[in-house]
Amino acid sequence: MRLKVKENTQQHRFELPIGDDLFAAAYYLIEDGRVVLIHTEVPAEFSGRGIGSQLAAETFELLRKTGRKAILKCPFIVRFFAKHPEYADVVDG
């Protein structure tokens, strides 16, 4: 799988491009070396198209690829993970 999600470390977010100058984002904090996923945003006009789920899946894949662990504080990411336990190796706590 070729990931479209890129990490923007300056803005503390994972970004999924979805149009001209538009992107969905999963915001995070770093706490004790772990990535704390705190908030996910998808532009309203793209709601209901699976973009949030793609963002979540690719964020987990990127974390896995880079050997990092995530703490889930974002309600959307928590619901996504509940349906996708295959990412359990990435989740810490």
Q: What structural class is derived from the secondary structure elements?
A: alpha+beta
Widest sheet: strand order? 1-2-3-4-5
Instruction: Please state roughly what percent of the residues sit in beta strands, choosing from under 5%, 5-15%, 15-25%, 25-35%, 35-45% or over 45%.
Output: 25-35%
Oligomer: single chain
Mean pLDDT: 95
Give a quick set of tags describing it.
93 residues, alpha+beta
Give a short overview.
With 93 residues, the protein is α+β, with helices and mostly antiparallel strands.
What does this structure look like?
A hairpin with a 2-residue loop joins β3 and β4. The mean pLDDT is 95. The longest helix is centred in the middle third of the chain and has 15 residues. Helix content is 26%, strand content 33%. The chain is built from two helices and five strands. The chain is α+β, with helices and mostly antiparallel strands and 93 residues long. The chain has a five-stranded mixed beta sheet with strand order 1-2-3-4-5.
